[in-house]
Write a structure and sequence with these properties.
Strand content: under 5%
Number of helices: 18
Length: 347
């Protein structure tokens, strides 16, 4: 028993690195069960007390659970509430350091190699990350961790995904921090991104391609041109097409797609209005208060990312993306401003 406890304490951060990355993929249930198991045995094996959950997290949990009751995706909403609860109990009790960085770097390098292989056979690599946008967001949330292996993987994965939104969020983070390391990372990622996109899918970096993407996002958010949307989604990928409406209590958590027959708006703010209705007001008040306590500017890139993507709240994997970003920002520290000395020291 003592041997098991020692092994658990020694490799626990490595387990978490694996769970978190799996949590952003199609096999997120493995991460769910891993953290749930950890919540049960951690107090026994490490004598570490579970974290005290602040009231604003309880508020978010309550809203997700209640609005899931009348959602057509009730099970997914309930599991989202449970996922938030478990992560809120476990993650704050750890001080992630070297082992977490080491394992994360290894995992991301493996993911980068997979993305390279996929790019040879797919127009936009996706694989186990569900979509190219998700793949890019996975790279983005690890970017603040100051570790050369991680930085290399971030650049490769983000570039191969050709996902524009995470790249913009990374640039925003670099501008906010004004750290030379992050500015160099964002600049390098942008250059590789544009070169690869120009070769593989040039339409994604042209003015007309960007204009089309912006127009489509405005349509899905506002419903400005429902006839165009209906013809575009005539294959009924989400069910029978119906005009979206803002109601008193919304469609329920994750209920937009099944209730309207349309893909979710690429905007988490519009999505919560449609799904939560008037309940979106206390929901965002809880989140904003939590952001204030944590440090709003540390979370600003996530808020900006939510303007053009919905995965953070629209997919089960989104909760893990948020958790990774919070850990990454805490681990970012204050990188050595001398880039050459930094890479010779950590490379």
């Amino acid at each position: 028993m003592e041997t098991l406890k020692k092994l658990y304490r020694r490799y626990n951060e490595s387990y978490h690195a694996v769970y978190l990355l799996l949590g952003t993929s199609r096999v997120f249930l493995i991460a769910d069960f891993g953290f749930m198991f950890d919540a049960i045995i951690d107090p026994i094996f490490s004598k570490r007390k579970l974290a005290k959950i602040p009231f604003y997290i309880w508020g978010v949990l309550f809203i997700v659970a209640i609005t899931s009751i009348y959602s057509p995706e009730a099970f997914q909403g309930m599991t989202t509430a449970l996922r938030i609860l478990i992560l809120a109990l476990i993650l704050p009790t750890y001080k992630y350091r070297y082992k977490f960085k080491q394992m994360t770097g290894t995992l991301l390098i493996i993911l980068a190699l997979i993305a390279i292989g996929q790019s040879a056979f797919m127009l936009r690599s996706n694989g186990i990350q569900s979509s190219s946008s998700m793949l890019g967001q996975v790279a983005f949330v690890y970017a603040p961790i100051f570790w050369v292996q991680i930085s290399l993987a971030v650049v490769l994965i983000l570039s191969l995904s050709i996902a524009r939104s995470p790249l913009v969020a990374l640039i925003l983070f670099a501008v906010i921090t004004r750290k030379q390391y992050f500015l160099a990372l964002a600049g390098f990622a942008a250059v590789i991104f544009v070169i690869y996109a120009a070769i593989s899918t040039p339409g994604r970096v042209t003015f007309s391609g960007i204009k089309f993407a912006v127009t489509e996002r405005i349509e899905t958010v506002t419903g400005f041109d429902d006839k165009a949307l209906e013809s575009r989604y005539a294959d009924k990928i989400c069910g029978e097409f119906r005009e979206e409406k803002i109601t008193m209590f919304g469609y329920g958590w994750n209920g937009y797609c099944k209730s309207t027959g349309q893909p979710r708006p690429h905007n988490i703010y519009a999505l919560t209005i449609y799904e939560l209705g008037i309940i979106a007001i206390p929901f965002w008040l809880f989140i904003l208060y939590g952001a204030y306590k944590f440090g709003f500017w540390k979370l600003a890139p996530l808020f900006a990312l939510g303007l053009v993507t919905e995965e953070l709240l629209g997919r089960p994997e989104g909760i893990y993306l948020i958790a990774i970003w919070i850990i990454s920002v805490q681990l970012s520290g204050d990188p050595d401003p001398d880039i050459n000395r930094t890479f010779s020291k950590f490379g």
